[in-house]
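Team,

Forwarding the record for the chain on the shared tracking sheet. I've put the sequence and predicted structure together so nobody has to dig through attachments.
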Amino acid sequence: RHTPVGYDLVNLENIDPLKVDFKISERYAPVLHAGQQFDLAVDAFPRQEFVGRISAIDPRLDPATRTFVIRGVVGNPEHRLKPGMFSRISLTVAERKGAVMVPEEAIFPVADQLFVYKVVEETAVKTLVQTGTRGHGEVEIVDGLQKGDLVITAGHLKIRDGSAVSLL
């Protein structure tokens, strides 16, 4: 049997390095630059992160989504990553030295305010907090806690302000 002229037999793909395109909100445009590092995770390898670098930023904003397309390059010498795999990108756009972070589970709402139970001298103290950024299961506390404060992350329904706390 003969293959017709111009018929695609196989796809040729360069997979080392692998190119990855993703979108990012326009609000991060001022802090993005070529060479910036990002982490890539895929479901096929759940405990492994791959490191990539931004190689290009599309100068045109998508008016429908208000995002820019970013082109990144990820080293793939073992050819573990395959074109078309679904991936999650983590890109650090800012760092705040000394930020106080707590697990999301530590925060609970009351009306339109957010609180944590802080442990002070083996006593639970209901403490009003102001939150900042969120990510990876943690929340930044911009007001209400100090670095080193202990907070309770479970059992909020059974705890009251002033409850005795035993540290294990």
